[in-house]
Amino acid sequence: MNTKNSKSFVDDFMAYAKSKDPGQPEFHQAVHEVVESLADYLLDNPRYLHAKILERLIEPERIIQFRVPWTDDRGNININRGFRVEMNSAIGPYKGGLRFHPTVNQSILKFLAFEQVLKNSLTSLPMGGGKGGSDFDPKNKSDNEVMRFCQSFMTELSRHIGQYTDVPAGDIGVGGREIGFLFGQYKRLRNEFTGVLTGKGVEWGGSLIRPEATGYGAVYFAEEMMKTRGESFKGKTVAISGSGNVAQFACEKVLELGGKVVTLSDSSGSIHDPDGIDTEKLSYVMELKNAHRGRIKEYAEKYGVPYLKGQRPWSIKCDVALPCATENEINLEEAKTLITNGCFVVAEGANMPSNEEAVHLFLATKILYGPGKAANAGGVAVSGLEMTQNSMRLAWSREEVDTKLHSIMKNIHEMCVKYGSESSDFTNYVKGANIGGFVKVANSMMAQGLV
Ligand code: NDP
Ligand code: 2IT
């Protein structure tokens, strides 16, 4: 194997991965990005090839799929599908979010779980990787319907998780409300109050700063990248996609650092506010999205700004882009537009928001491009800190958690520079994050034998 050049190594490995799981495009996309980054490193370190670490990494340790039956408010019976992908436990219990969205399938959850393994390793905390969820759509459901769904989902999931085994959290469509219902049902079924989920309310075992952590962390990471070029957020124009958990707190932190956020979006369209979204307008967005579960279009109506129906925000001129909605939300054309408009920083709050061609363009043009597994690791990092606090049976202050988060993001940046620096003025953060995340997991797998 090690005599082959890296291109044929990647091609051969991808042929193998695709033949094992045809029809899983998102999973293949995530694996391809990682294998491309790792090829030279693996060829230089053939012990990993002999131990078949890559082949083992793409094979989930376990996948659980189950039926989730529930009744809606009219008494109709609904059947959804539930999943948990337990990807890798080499460095700790499986850890990763739950996604409730109609598009959820095995390919998407395997891509997310695979990314999570390397991301969690980068945080330096002892967490393996997993991901789960359901094709349940929480939109237009009453609180009672969401509760009944969560209870049914957890009735099965509770057999497979635990504070030392697998610790889920939130992701798209799963926030504080859902984690509450899930936790309540787990506690009732198992008769134990443990840190089996993260993202809990602060009054019942949650950590301060967990809701903020992914968005804040992505901005801290972008700030570190900008520092390498003597730049900062001050006075910069920032485009953000999404208007959920990650987008809201990314926006909050950018404002604090003196940047101007001009866009937000949801799956129906984007708003463009040329004057900038200030803290008052952001409070309105939080109320609109979190309390009323409204649409971002209402922002455009309230503040009299343009609404780009059915469009993503990347046509708007910006210095910094923070994609915080979902996978494959920046294609090649959109990436070109961003760069033509002068955007020189892309930090991914979402998982895999840039498609493969967009990533290649960002790397070729040598902008500051921070891939999701590095830039959005702040969320799971504070989940790890929530687990620590639960184990110690105490709670840290906001300042303490935020300081730890900030230092974890700086360390991840350093790790990316260590493995991804290609010249005195260019770091390939994709390569840095992939190798940086891989080494610890691979060495742990080697140490633990063929399991
Ligand atoms: P939320 O459910 O809070 O918000 C998701 C946002 O993205 C909403 O504005 C939603 O719009 C939009 N969105 C979702 N799916 C699509 C789609 N298919 N097309 C267009 N827009 C879409 O989720 P989060 O903010 O928690 O998650 C956002 C991203 O960040 C995801 O990629 C997630 O995996 C990633 N992430 C989240 C972490 C966390 O701690 N929560 C940690 C690390 C990464 P609409 O309301 O119309 O659906
Ligand atoms: O993609 C992610 O890192 C998350 N959704 C957060 C996972 C977690 O366990 O906090």
Layout: helices, strands, pairs:
Blueprint (H helix, E strand, L loop, with lengths): L5 H15 L4 H20 L1 H5 L2 H5 L4 E10 L5 E12 L5 E7 L5 H17 L6 E6 L8 H15 L8 E4 L6 H15 L19 H18 L9 E4 L4 H12 L3 E7 L2 E4 L6 H13 L5 H7 L3 E3 L10 E3 L9 H9 L4 E3 L8 H9 L3 E3 L1 H4 L1 H16 L5 H23 E3 L2 E2 L1 H19 L4
Parallel strand pairs: 3-4, 3-5, 6-7, 6-10, 10-11, 11-12
Antiparallel strand pairs: 1-2, 2-4, 7-8, 8-9, 13-14
Helix pairs in contact: 1-2, 2-5, 2-17, 5-17, 6-7, 8-9, 8-15, 8-16, 9-10, 12-13, 15-16, 16-17
The protein binds NADPH dihydro-nicotinamide-adenine-dinucleotide phosphate and (2Z)-2-iminopentanedioic acid (2IT).
NADPH dihydro-nicotinamide-adenine-dinucleotide phosphate (NDP) binds next to helix 9.
Query: What gyration radius follows from the Cα positions, in whole Å?
Result: 21 Å
Oligomer: single chain
Shape: globular
User: How does the helix and strand content classify structurally?
Assistant: alpha/beta
- Low-pLDDT runs of 5+ residues are none
Strand segment tally:
14
CATH fold group of the domain at 213-366: Rossmann fold
How many helices in DSSP terms? 17
The hetero compounds bound to this protein are: NADPH dihydro-nicotinamide-adenine-dinucleotide phosphate, (2Z)-2-iminopentanedioic acid
Q: Any idea of the CATH class of the domain at 213-366?
A: Alpha Beta
Give the N-to-C terminal Cα separation.
23 Å
Q: Residue share in helices?
A: 40-55%
Architecture per CATH nomenclature, i.e. the level-2 architecture of the domain at 213-366: 3-Layer(aba) Sandwich
